[in-house]
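Dear colleague,

As promised, here are the two records you asked about, laid out in our usual form so they can be pasted straight into your sheet.

NAME FIELD: protein one
SEQUENCE, THEN STRUCTURE:
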Amino acid sequence: MATLDGLPPLREVIQAHDLVAKKALGQNFLLDMNLTAKIARMAGDLTACDVLEVGPGPGGLTRGLLIEGARRVLAIEKDPRCIAALEEISAVYPNRLSVLNADALTVDAGALLTSPIRVIANLPYNVGTELLIRWLSPAIWPPFWQSLTLMFQKEVAERIVARPKTDHYGRLALLAQWRCDAKIVMHLPPEAFTPAPKVHSAVVHLTRLEQPRFAADFGILQRITAMAFNQRRKMLRSSLKGLHPNIEIMLTACDIPPTARAEEISLEQFCALSRSFAAV
C-alpha cells in the first residue's frame, strides 16, 4: 500500500519491529496517517517551526508532522524498541528529524530546539498530565514553546478547558487558562488506537499568553487553589481558614462570598484573592 511519504504503512512497521504496545509505558499507537496529519494541522503552519514530540512510538504522528512541513522535529522516545523505526523515518527526512532515546521528564528540550517551537504529541497516558503541568509552570514565563497540541484521555482534556460550576473544573483548568487560551480541537474514539484503550481521547490546543491572563503570584495562587480544591465540597471560609485569621473579610473584599465553594469561583476571583494575600 502506497503512503504519502513512501514509508511502509504503520501496521507493517509495528510488525517488522515487533512493537507490541506496553501498558506500563502508557502506549496506545495511532496508526491512521490521515488522523496524524490532521492533528499536525491543528497546530497551525509548521513550516517555520521546530516541533517537540514526546512518545512518538512507531512514528505515526512524527510522519504526519514532517509531511505537514515541520521545519525540524525532535522526537523523545523512552522505549528503545521504537528507535530503529524512528531512525528509518529520519533517513527519509535528512536533517529534519532528531530522535532522542530518553525520558522526556528529564530532558531540557527547549535547549535542543530553535524558536519558534511548538509541542505536538500523543502523550503517553501515564505521564501526560505531569508533562503538561511542567510546561505550564516554568520558572520564567513566557516559556520556550508557542503552543501545545496534545492528546489526552477525554476526561483530562475536559479538565483543562473546564469552566466554573462544572464537575471537571479545578486546579488544572485554572493553571491552563491563567496562562493560555485552551480549547478541545478533536475527539477520537478508542478504536482509532492500537490497542484500543478503554476511554475516549481528545486533542487539546493551548496557545500561550505572553503574560498571565490576570496578575497573581504563581506560588500564592497555587497554594490557595490547592487548599480550596482539596476540600472542594467545603465553603471557602472553612477550606481557606488556615491561610489567614480574617479570611472571611478578605474573601468579601474580593467579591467572593465566604459561603461559596471552590468550583463556583472564577479564575479572575482566585487571582484577586492571591493579590490580596500578597499585600498582607
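NAME FIELD: protein two
SEQUENCE, THEN STRUCTURE:
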Amino acid sequence: MKREAIVHPFPAFYRPDSRILILGSFPSVKSREQMFFYGHPRNRFWKVIAALYGEEEPSSVPDKRRLLEKHRIALWDVVGSCTICGSADSTIEDVVPNDLARILDAAPIERIFVNGKTAEKWYLKYQLPLLQQEAFCLPSTSPANAAWSFEKLLEAWKIILE
C-alpha cells in the first residue's frame, strides 16, 4: 500500500450543547469511505459509547449522530491532514493539526479525551501548546488494540461519565 497525502475529508461533529470532546488521530480508510467517524466494523468505539449510556449500538450514520447528540458528545480528530499509508496510525507523517478552537468556541466543552496513544501524541505536540487544556488519554478502540478486551475498554472509558 502506498503512502498518500490526505486532507481530513469530513467535518467535526458537535452541537452548541456538546460537553465532551473525543478526539481520534485521523480517519481510517473505512471512515473516509463512510464520511463519518469510526467506520471500521471492528472498531469498538460505537459499541463502547452505546454500552456506557445503556443504549443500543448504532448501525447507521444518522443513528450514530443521534447517540452523540443525545449524550452531548463532540467528535473530531487531532490531525487535519497528513501523509498516511492506508489506515495505519504508525505511518502518519507531515501532520497539519485541525483547528480545535472552532469547537471550543462554539460549545461549552468541559472535558477533552483522546482515543489512543497516537491521538495523544499529536495532541500533546500540536494542540496542548495552543489550547492550554489537558486531554485525558483513553485506550484505543481500534481493532489494532487487541490487548484490550471489550470489558477492559468499557471499564476504562467509564471515566467520561464522571
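A couple of things worth noting about protein two: The first strand starts at residue 3 and ends at 7. The domain at 3-161 is CATH 3.40.470.10 (Uracil-DNA Glycosylase, subunit E).

Best,
R.
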